[in-house]
Amino acid sequence: MKKKMISLAAVLCLMAAPLYSSFDQPQESHCYRTLLVITSESDWTIVRLLEGHILTATYDIVEGNTVPECECWCDPHLNLIGMTKKQFDTSLVKIEVKIILYLKEDLNIVFEIQKGDIKYTTLDIYNYNGKEPVFLETVNNDANIPGDPENTMEFTVDINKLTAKGPLQYLVSSVPKLVWAFYYPWYHKQQWHTSKALIDTPLVGAHDSSDPDVIELHIKQAKSAGIDGFIVSWWGKNDYADQNLKTILYIADKLDFKITIYLESLQNGPRSEEDLKKMFLSFYESYGEDQRYYRINGNPVIFVWAVESHPPSSWEDILSAVEDEGYTGVYIAMAGQPDYLEIFDGLHLYGTVGVSDLSAVYERLSTSAVRTDTLMMNPHTYGLPLYARGMMIGKYQEEKGCINPETTENTIWKPLKLLLTVLQTGFWSPVSTSGGRIHTSNQA
Hints:
With 444 residues, the chain is an alpha/beta fold. The chain contains 9 helices and 22 strands.
């Protein structure tokens, strides 16, 4: 499947303007691209950056792919690249690692090489701020240091050599931000009286999610709180939620309100690849040409739940098969791993309860996954991938003292108005109500 990179900002923020190059403006950063070539005959080795930060990294094993039990990895959070194989195995392994460094002025660039007691590890360092990598220097560690099982070797690289022809420029989207809320149209009236899970009573009273008057009320309440659209839970063709989606689209169109779906990839566990292909195809057959559905550059936007239930390679097979049938969409994955940007057009997070430092998580993802991902390529060839920040609003936040809702009305929608100022950060920010996967009508 041909990969597209698009600019995103949101809670889902969707943009009304085109998202490609003429709307993506370059902005200078403290980011620099470097190529490291690690060659080792030792049975393990680690290369670590001690000063500066690795924002994101990709690697290729160019020699040694068939070495038994050989494993390689990159961990940007720990600023390291590593390789292991069977003990005392002296087979040659060669790894090319492309990294984006965050460097500030007057900073010493200090690396260390660690290795096993046998053989050597060599590190070739290149400046890669231009179109082609430029060789800087080679460092070799063949030490076997008594009392030091890691055989650590530290060395400094001239920062002026690494930063020449930099810094890189990343793209900042000028597309307007939107705010979205997840919406779950799966309730039947009797559930409000019989389900032990539904401990809260909606302000509108017990109701069916299929009731047009309730849907209209929810949309009007959301609009009054500054929300631009709903991401509607969708379980496949002819499901109860699918039947309600048709009504939601009809009412939302009259009220100038945006609608996308949340493709539910789990059902008593992960759905099979074949089932997921069928879900995507049935969506396009029903809604692919429906102009009431939200689109970017003419393609429908689809949020996909829990994509980490399958590896990126499986999703590539699924979406390639859909594309082979003539359907193209903009796919936003619920995932925290930048690897999925190889397949999807963007990322979002859903559940944020229990995350101790949510701002740090969002800063890491929005920087490493979005702004620096394209720096691995040519930032003037690709736009930014989409990224949506998530927030959960409701009882959990009330109990933690995060919000102080007025008790007489709209305990959810009024705090949302206050939070809109927080969302003006250049990224999308999805809103999920209450302390779990509970849809907006539960509190409306």
